[in-house]
Amino acid sequence: MSHALRRTTFITAAAAAAIAVAAGPALASTVVTPAGQAVTASSSNLSIKTGTITLTCTSTTGSGTVPTAPGNSNTGTGGVNVNIGTPSLTGCKANGLPAVVTTSGTWQLNVSGDAMPAGSAQGSLIIPASGAVVTIPGSTCTVTVGASTIGPLAFDIPNQRVVASNTGTVNYTRTGTGPVCPAAATGTATMSGTLQFASSTPINVTP
């Protein structure tokens, strides 16, 4: 093979390789900034519904931080978990009757840029096992929320919020009885509400 032919073959192969790389799928990744930023997550319209039972809370507040570098980035799939601590849920009612919600463990928001730039950033609320226990005064009914992930849902970066509308799955177990109590001993519920984020510098997500 002549030098000219070898050179032409090499150039053609290199061009084909470059085209193949350019046409290949973009690698998923997530970067959440500012790293180490304190953040508060709150909701004034949180509701959890299962069957004919609806739990509503007028105030939900949790505080945490974006992970410090390099924990604020993930070069693969799966996004980055932002801790929002153990949130407080107050002003709660079950079908209009007063309810007490006791929370525990570390709740998280998983922020993902895997769908970007073709789509939006995604957010999922992660509730730990026994992360919330609901009791109805005047009854023996107790509902314990198990390990649950709500989402992924679109994370509205300009408005710093994630909106759920009858989104599941919220796992639960029930003990006792009462006028307002899930019929099943175990089951799932859906969640609605707006989780609003506030921080001194707005949270940003890039792929």
How would you describe this structure to a colleague?
The protein has 207 residues and is mainly beta. The chain has one helix and 17 strands. The protein has one helix at residues 3-23; strands spanning 30-33, 38-43, 46-50, 53-65, 73-74, 80-83, 88-94, 97-98, 100-103, 108-112, 122-127, 132-135, 142-145, 148-156, 161-175, 186-198, 204-206. Strands 2, 3, 4, 6, 7, 8, 9, 10, 11, 12, 13, 14, 15 and 16 form a 14-stranded antiparallel sheet that branches. A three-stranded antiparallel sheet has the order 5-1-17, with no helix packed on it. A hairpin with a 2-residue loop joins strand 7 (88-94) and strand 8. The chain is elongated and about 50 Å long. It starts with a helix and ends with a strand.
